[in-house]
Design a protein that fits this description.
By secondary structure, the protein is mostly helical. The chain contains 3 helices and no strands.
Length: 68
């Protein structure tokens, strides 16, 4: 039986809850990096590379998850 809630998590070899938890962690990290970028826009001497370094780290993590 087709279940849209589990189709994609199964494609990445995770349960619905595992996938949800991972997506929530990514979302929280992106929100934090967004705040750092916003602060950097006002105070360019703070968080000089925090957002770009964090995005690279998240991308590397996502690429590793895809290889599994």
């Amino acid at each position: 039986m087709y279940n849209p809630f589990t189709k994609h998590p199964k494609e990445v070899n995770e349960t619905y809850l595992q996938h949800m938890w991972c997506a929530i962690k990514f979302s929280a990290k992106l929100e934090y990096l967004s705040c750092c970028a916003f602060i950097h826009a006002i105070f360019p001497f703070w968080f000089k590379t925090k957002a770009s370094d964090g995005i690279k780290e998240l991308n590397n993590c996502m690429q590793q998850r895809r290889k599994k």
